[in-house]
Automatic annotation (TrEMBL):
Annotated InterPro entries: 7TM_GPCR_serpentine_rcpt_Srh (IPR019422), Nematode_rcpt-like_serp_H (IPR053220)
Transmembrane intervals: 35-52, 64-90, 102-130, 151-171, 210-240, 261-285, 297-315
Native species: Caenorhabditis elegans
Protein name: Serpentine Receptor, class H
Pfam families linked to this entry: 7TM_GPCR_Srh (PF10318)
Source taxon at top rank: Eukaryota
Length: 347
């Protein structure tokens, strides 16, 4: 066995034929995600402003679910793109961060916990958004109208989500030995493996394969399943078995808003799913593609903010009013007239 990391770097590593591309380096995740966040932040702030100040009466019951969803999405995006931008080396499950927190000296394990919590909160907020929409359909027998039931349900979700922290249990305490074992399985990582304070989450290839190939897909399916459950029964009692006691106009608005919420979820999810697909297909192995997967995940913030603003008709019209007022300050009379008809917004 190689006696030390330094000895390996000076002997064995010199024989590797490595790519020195920009995308494979730490800069390939740090710079693109910073650039993405520059464009995301104004859109995120605009979405917050519109949700809080421009939500019409017809959408009042969904104002806070929309707000919380956008809040947790924004927190995740800011952490991923700015504070704890992650550089992942697969298949050895090695990670380090190149965000603001890493330059401040915050331990990487704390950054991973923060990043994981923000990702779980994002998933949690989408489930809450769909559950709130399901609860608004009066004839739905599966809606959780009682507060105690919702507390039990979301407590269960939090407990099930906490299983992801299993990676804290399997992190090797002897990182020097773990790095040497990882190098035996994958002898030619990028130079960042030796120049950055990398943390090996697990050096056993069997356990790593289980986490990446089995545990994570099951975990993702569990989260998606809850959202699908709430959406399915909402669709059933709006389209297949609608209530005769609810007016056609109300049902029409509920259908429209359900379509908008699904679209709001689908647009940013494309970036996450595409990112996950890139990461899984690049596991064996391309560091450029791995970093590209992280960069694509960073686009979630732009997609989510644009979806919030433009999918819902009242928010889209409110954004148009703001732009119209900024471009033509003399048109305040016309803007006021449009505002006066805000009650006519449909959802």
């Amino acid at each position: 066995m190689i006696s030390s990391i330094d000895n390996y770097y000076s002997t064995n590593y010199s024989k590797c034929n490595l790519s020195e591309s920009f995308l494979a380096s730490w800069k390939g995740v740090a710079y693109p995600t910073d650039f993405i966040q520059i464009f995301s932040l104004p859109l995120q702030i605009l979405a917050f402003y519109i949700i809080l100040t421009k939500t019409p009466v017809q959408m009042k019951s969904m104002k806070w679910p929309l707000f919380y969803n956008h809040l947790f999405c924004s927190i995740f995006d800011v952490i991923l793109c700015t504070f704890s931008t992650i550089y992942i080396i697969l298949p050895m499950l090695g990670v380090f961060t190149v965000g603001v927190f890493s330059w401040l000296g915050i331990p990487i394990i704390l950054e991973l916990i923060l990043l994981t919590c923000s990702l779980l909160s994002l998933a949690f907020s989408y489930i809450y958004l769909f559950e709130s929409r399901s609860r608004a359909v009066s004839q739905n027998p599966f809606k959780m109208s009682r507060k105690s039931t919702r507390i039990k349900y979301y407590s269960y979700l939090i407990l099930s989500y906490s299983t992801i922290f299993i990676f804290l249990i399997i992190i090797p305490s002897d990182q020097e030995t773990a790095k040497l074992q990882a190098l035996q399985a994958y002898p030619c990582p990028t130079q960042e493996f030796f120049t950055f304070p990398i943390l090996i989450l697990n050096s056993d290839s069997t356990t790593s394969t289980f986490i990446v190939i089995i545990f994570m897909p099951i975990f993702i399916a569990h989260s998606v399943g809850h959202g699908v459950f709430h959406v399915t029964w909402t669709i059933w009692y709006l389209y297949v078995a609608p209530s005769n006691q609810v007016s056609i106009e109300t049902q029409k608005k509920q259908k429209t808003f359900l379509k908008n919420v699904i679209l709001q979820f689908s647009i940013p999810s494309v970036f996450i799913l595409f990112s996950v697909a890139i990461i899984f297909t690049s596991s064996f192995y391309s560091q450029e593609m791995m970093n590209l997967g992280v960069d694509v995940a960073g686009l979630h913030g732009i997609g989510e903010s644009i979806a919030v603003i433009f999918v819902h008709s009242p928010y889209r019209k409110a954004a148009g009013q703001l732009i119209f007022r900024w471009n033509d300050p003399q048109s305040s009379t016309r803007v006021s007239a449009v505002r006066g008809n805000s009650s006519a917004f449909t959802i």
